[in-house]
């Protein structure tokens, strides 16, 4: 929920956090497009995609 909270409360802070987060995601993404974490590949990939979903604003809750 950190991305959503930052996005709704302090857009400038979210933009800086998002820039760093996107770079981290790029570095950690595997060649097959997935991410790996202790919770498993499916969970890691799903939560990573949700964390970057604000960039696309697909869901009404992601609107400002």
Quick tags:
59% helix, mainly alpha, 64 residues, 3 helices
Largest sheet, strands/sense/barrel = none
Percent of sequence in beta strands: under 5%
Low-confidence stretches: none
Name the structural class: mainly alpha
Distance between the termini: 15 Å
Oligomer: single chain
Could you give the topology of this structure?
Blueprint lengths: L1 H8 L1 H18 L12 H12 L12
Helix pairs in contact: 1-2
Task: Describe this structure as you would to a colleague.
By secondary structure, the chain is mainly α. Helix content is 59%, strand content 0%. It has helices at residues 2-9, 11-28, 41-52. Helix 1 (2-9) runs antiparallel to helix 2 (11-28). It is globular and about 30 Å long. The two termini are 15 Å apart. The relative contact order is 0.17.
Question: In brief, what are we looking at here?
Answer:
By secondary structure, the protein is mostly helical.
